[in-house]
Amino acid sequence: HQATNYKAFMYALVARLLREQRLLFLPLDKIATASDMHEPYQLLVEELTVISLLETESGRLQAPKKAMVRSLLGRSSDSLDALCLAVFMAHLRSLNLYDLNAFKQFA
Predict the structure, then answer these.
(1) CA atoms of 29 and 49, how far apart (whole Å)
(2) pLDDT (tens digit per residue) in 54-63
(3) Cβ contact 47:77 at 8 Å
(4) Whole-angstrom Cα distance, residue 48 to residue 81?
(5) Which tens digit of pLDDT belongs to each residue from 8-60?
(6) 3-state DSSP of the chain
(7) Cα–Cα distance measured from residue 62 to residue 69, given in angstroms and rounded to the nearest whole number
(8) Cα gap 2→30, rounded to integer Å
(9) What is the pTM of this model?
(10) Which residues pair with 55 in a beta bridge?
């Protein structure tokens, strides 16, 4: 599927890597004993569980609108957005692409 924009592509990339078990999450008790790690991890897990990509009539993938995310979570999806951006940048580096204009051919 093609994505409608970069955000949808990033969400789809993270979803694919999770499905293929190329991006893994450890159980919370294995990550850190420090309690300051618990809240960010729980927020991310909640966002991954609640937010899903939508498919447009033309079959392209679309990220949910901010208003929809806020209604589902009661807040924005900052943790998931940060994860998606980090994974996306690593993906660009793996393709030796640093210019988003050059990347458009792959999106």
Answers:
(1) 19
(2) 999 999 999 9
(3) yes
(4) 10
(5) 999 999 999 989 988 877 665 665 555 566 777 888 889 998 999 999 999 99
(6) CCECCHHHHHHHHHHHHHHCCCCCCCCHHHHCCCHHHHHHHHHHHHHHHHCCCEECCCCCEECCCHHHHHHHHCCCCHHHHHHHHHHHHHHHHHCCCCCHHHHCCCC
(7) 13
(8) 36
(9) 0.78
(10) 61
